[in-house]
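Submission checklist for the structure archive. All mandatory fields must be present; incomplete records are returned to the submitter.

[x] Identifier: LysR family transcriptional regulator
[x] Organism: Telluria aromaticivorans
[x] Residue count: 326
[x] Sequence attached
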Amino acid sequence: MIDINEHDFHKLDLNLLLVFTALLRERSVTRAAKRLYLGQPAMSASLARLRAFAGDDLFVRTARGMEPTAHALALAERLKPALEGLSTALFTDTAFDPASSDRTFALGMFDIGEVTLAPALLGALAAQAPRIRLALRPVDQANAVAQLEAGTLELAITDIGPTTGWICTKPLFKESFACMFDPKLVQVRIPISLQDYLAYPHLLTSFGGEFTGYVDDVLVERGLSRHVTMTTTRFSTLPFVLRRFRGIASLPGTAARELGSALGLEVSPLPFEVPAVGLHLVWHARHETDKGHQWLRDLVYRSCMRLAPPRRNRKVSASHPKARCD
C-alpha cells in the first residue's frame, strides 16, 4: 500500500518539481526555461510559486548564476530517490526474463483444470522458467471476478458470464459435455442411448450443493429428468467414486477423456444435445501491460489450446483472439 496523504498534493502543482530540478541542473532561469520549453516570464512565475510553497528563496542570484540555498540542497537530496523512482516506474519499459524470474503467480481454475492443465504448465515452466512458481486456487463463475478484483488471483480460467469494471477476457474454446462410467459396472453400448442414460443414477458436480445443473436444465426442456444420487464440489472426485458405483457422471469432455484414459473408465457423448460452454482467460486490467503477466497469459493460452477438443486442437498460431477489457 502507498502511504501518502493525497490532500497534501492538492497544495502543489507537481509540474513545479520539474521547474525545481531544471533550476538545480542549469543554475539559470533562462536556460531552465529553455530546457522546459517555457517562456522566461512563465519560468519566473513558476519559481515565485515554488518559493511561496517552500517558504524559502530556494535559489539566489550570484555572479555564478542562480545558486541553491541550503534548504534547496536538502530538499533536492530528499526528492532525488523519489523522482528517479517515479521516472523509472513511468517511463522505463520493465523487462521480464522468464528464465531468471522468481515470481509467483496465483492462477484460478476448476479442480479438473488442475488435473488436466497442471502437467502441461509444469513442463513448460521447467523448460522456460524454472524458478517461477504457480499457486493454483479454486475458482468458479460466481467468485472469479471478486477474487481478481481483490488481488488474490492474477489469472483465471472459467466459463465467465457478463463482466463489469476493469475485467479483461480472452476466449479459449467451447467445451462440450460427455458422460463417464465404469464399463464393468455400467454395461451399455457406446454411444450410450437416452434410455440407458436415464436408467442409471447420476453423480453431479455442483459448487452450491444443488442436485440439478446445466444438463438437468436441458433435460427439463425435453420433459425428461434424471436421478442424481450425490453431488460434490469437485470434478476430480467423480472418477474414483465411479470405479465403485454403478452410475454415470456428466462433465466437460476434455476432462472426461483425460480421466477416463487414466483410470480405465468409458467415455461417451451425451445422447442429447447440450450447448457447449465457452471457457475464457480472465484477468484484471491492472495487469494488462505487466510483461510477466503477458508472458503468463500467453503460456496458459497455448497450454489450454493444446488440450482443446479435437476439432479445435489445431496448431496454435501467433494470431491469438483479441482480449476484451470492460
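[x] Structure attached
Curator remark: The radius of gyration is 30 Å. The longest helix spans residues 70-91.
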